[in-house]
Request: fold
Amino acid sequence: MSTENLSLKKIVPHSDAPWMASIGRLAALFVLIVLMTLLTRSPDEGFVFLNKANLLNIARNASILIIIGIGETITLIAKDIDLSIGSVITLTSVLAGIMMSHLNIPIPVAILSSLITGILIGLVNGLLITKAGLPPFIATYGMLWVVYGMAYLILKGGTLFGFPQSFRYWGTGRLLGIPMPIFVMLITFAVFYVLVNHTTLGRRFFAAGANPEAAKMSGVKVDQTVIIAYIISGFLAAFAGLVLLAYSNGSTSTTGDAYLLPIIAVVVIGGTSLAGGDGSLTGTMIAALIMATINNGMNILAVPGTWQKLVVGVLIIGAVLMDLWIRRRGK
Reply:
């Protein structure tokens, strides 16, 4: 084992907490499923919530949250928050949509162009933070509006819809009876789980967020590590935007707006610290399933959208308070 790896282990004794650390969240998910099952039971229709079709629908909706949440988790572990993800989803879906529906550009080229756009936005975010010295909140919040403006100018307030069936398969198709977005999410999760928890780069993310100065002394190129984290976030936001486009068959200049708050909630509820240096992709996955379950149950119960946002806000505040309480107890 290299000297750098030994030094990193001293800074970061563990990367992703094992499955045991997520038992509480799994228990919460189980209780939530039982609660929603009882609340939505209909004398005429039976168990409206607890059936195969609805559970697959929950998993499919959670898949988009998980893919984006992986990138947000990595940036929070390595440095700080990325607020531009919603706009990246919008712009990349608009670019791919207009290439396929208006310009007749081949699907692979449209997909590749959108992914490169997401990577470039992540790169700019990383450079603004590490080289220009902007706080991550300011840099990514400013980028949010820049990217939103670009998407709006391209569409000019219009709507895109109607894409090739071969592209839509990745959002609406099924394999062995399971929606394709679930398979896409599982493969994405597996790749980045290994990257974050079983590679030197993954340990660098944790070291850069936990103690940047100590990480530098251990030979970690902290700025480079932070830039890579934001590039990954941009790439995954673009990737999720493409999956969402394939599923919804439409895009507007506000497509990604609805995802920013839920993603922050998912990552924080999943146990990733806002202080950096600590986080769990497993926790993010479970939290996304919790969020999708809550949204699905509230939709079945016809809870107004305003109240749904209130619930998300309460969850975020509660998760942050719990994180602070746990950290104080650990001191």
Observations:
- Residues 3-330 form a domain with the ABC transporter involved in vitamin B12 uptake, BtuC fold (CATH 1.10.3470).
- The first helix runs from residue 3 to 11.
